[in-house]
Amino acid sequence: MKKLIYILLFLTLIIVLLPAEGTKEVEGTKEVERTLVIEDTTGNIARMERIPERITFAGKSANMVADVLYMFPEAASRMVGVGTTNQGNGDFIKFLDPAYDTKTYLERNAGPEQIAVTRPELVVMKNFLKKSLGDSISQLDIPVLYLNLETPVAYEKDFKMLGKVFGNPERAAELIQYYKNEKEFVTERTKALTEKPDILFIYHTTRDGITAFNIPPESWIQTRMVEMAGGNPVWTDIHPGGGWSKVNLEQIAAWNPDQIYVVAYKQDINKVLNLMKESSEWKELEAVKNGKLTAFPVDFYSWDQPDSRWILGLNWLAKQIHPDLFADLDIPKLARNFFTELYFLTDEQYETEILSRLGW
Question: Rounded to two decimals, what is the model's pTM?
Fold first, then answer.
């Protein structure tokens, strides 16, 4: 009987000392999470035994995902599978990650099996890929998290989530504060404007020799940027939702906006702009007559997208629309600080890889 009592006491002691799932145990002086539970903005939950050491990003819009992942200093050592990030001007991530060539490169259309080969502890992708790709990966018992990255508010939430992924909430807080400060620098000045010029933002495409001009929906970052920068986006009444929508020159002429801003993600934007300026039809528009047909800046990627560079695009656009109001805004200085502080580039790296592409 006495031996049985000792055995029961010993088992009770073991049960008491073992940490419950989801609690913390002390390893030296460092607290380690036995179970890491992270929820993204879609409501999807990823459960991991620890902070992931093997992360893969994949799918369409992988460059936007990669550009926020690599704002965290831990990213380069933890990425094992990398998605397609080249939009025509080179791989920004290849430049950031010294071990890029040793990692598994995934094509834009890579499926669950190809992604699983990288043996990830976590897969990260854009939220619109949940049904088409993410759910299939989850069925392989691989945790998946989705990034939104479509609005300033979404960026803040996504940074907080990534702070948990990398175990670096301090860096997440720094990034959130940076974006908040730069956004409010613009919006605090433009919110009281009573007169706002009519602005048109268009995406130029050429497919099978056919040129088209496209406008973004009302909810996209390009529209929000125009509004925050103190402009009136003329296209929202005819395109409240959905994806890119084609617009003809007759409609553009009817709007006859004060200023026009152009992007062409997979074409040489300077060539596109020159062709537009030489066109007899475009020359009739007030914006062209007044020298207000302008291309968005491009380094590896254009500054208008829901990529990390949207904060640069917002400030640049505000100065373009209201040069007097933002006379003190030094865009070249802002860009240099962005890449050196957020991506840890040296001044020499910035000048060689970024400034050379901007052509300033």
Answer: 0.88
